[in-house]
Description:
- Residues 1-23 form the signal peptide.
- InterPro entries: Allrgn_V5/Tpx1_CS (IPR018244), CAP_dom (IPR014044), CAP_sf (IPR035940), CRISP-related (IPR001283), V5_allergen-like (IPR002413).
- The strands form two sheets. Strands 1-5-6-2 form a four-stranded mixed sheet, with helices on both faces. A two-stranded antiparallel sheet has the order 3-4.
- The protein is globular and about 45 Å long.
- By secondary structure, it is of the alpha+beta class.
- A hairpin with a 4-residue loop joins strand 3 and strand 4 (112-113).
- The protein is built from five helices and six strands.
- The protein starts with a helix and ends in an 11-residue tail after the last strand.
Amino acid sequence: xxxxxxxxxxxxxxxxxxxxxxxxxxxxxxxxxxxxxxxxxxxxxxxxxxxxxxxxxxxxxxxxxxxxxxxxxxxxxxxxxxxxxxxxxxxxxxxxxxxxxxxxxxxxxxxxxxxxxxxxxxxxxxxxxxxxxxxxxxxxxxxxxxxxxxxxxxxxxxxxxxxx
Length: 164
């Protein structure tokens, strides 16, 4: 009987670690998608579609960052945007809006950002070949801030290529 209980408790533990949390509720999923798909629609690009595999990956990585909430990329197989905000009130809509706001510093003709500014979050969102997205949000253990991440497939931001 002991092997069964060990397996059962291991399964429950893994389920609790990788289970979707509030970040993947329908409401927050729509918050992640809405702003990003509006940016794509403005360029007549196909909308991103929520992908549970990407959402699980994002949740796995967000759970790893929960302890320190460092703005470090996972270096995984997907495109990735990350966000950190002080305090626990940050929403997925605000993270997505911050990424989309980088549009102001992106120059399509030179395919570059204004000097000293970042625009790679925006270009990942509007990467023409990207079709799927999955995101997650966690409250940081050490400071009560919020860490959010979205993963994109196929990934974008290839050096020397324009996003659309």
